[in-house]
Write a structure and sequence with these properties.
This protein has 91 residues and is an all-alpha fold. The protein contains three helices and no strands.
């Protein structure tokens, strides 16, 4: 009797996903924000080590890109912690 219940529970749990469609949308949006932030942070170096390039201290690299990365991580946390609308609460 106990083995039948375990098999039924295992079969039922295998078909359910942890996150819903809404969660995955937010995860991809957050991932895109993080990737765009790191792309904006890249570059600004100089080919010649004797020449200093002021471009590394631009607004884009110092303020915009890290803020975008932090927003992306915030969206990721929200996507993980939010309850999916299409999950059944009656379980």
């Amino acid at each position: 009797m106990g083995e039948q219940k375990r098999k039924e529970v295992n079969n039922q749990n295998n078909s359910d996903f942890i996150f819903g469609k809404r969660n995955y949308k937010f995860m991809f949006i957050g991932l895109a924000c993080i990737v765009i932030g790191f792309i904006l942070m890249s570059g600004g170096g100089s080919d010649d080590p004797n020449v200093f390039n002021e471009d590394i201290f631009s607004f884009r690299r110092i303020r915009l890109a890290p803020t975008l990365v932090l927003i992306g991580f915030g969206i990721q946390i929200y996507a993980i912690l939010t309850r999916s609308k299409d999950s059944n609460d009656s379980k």
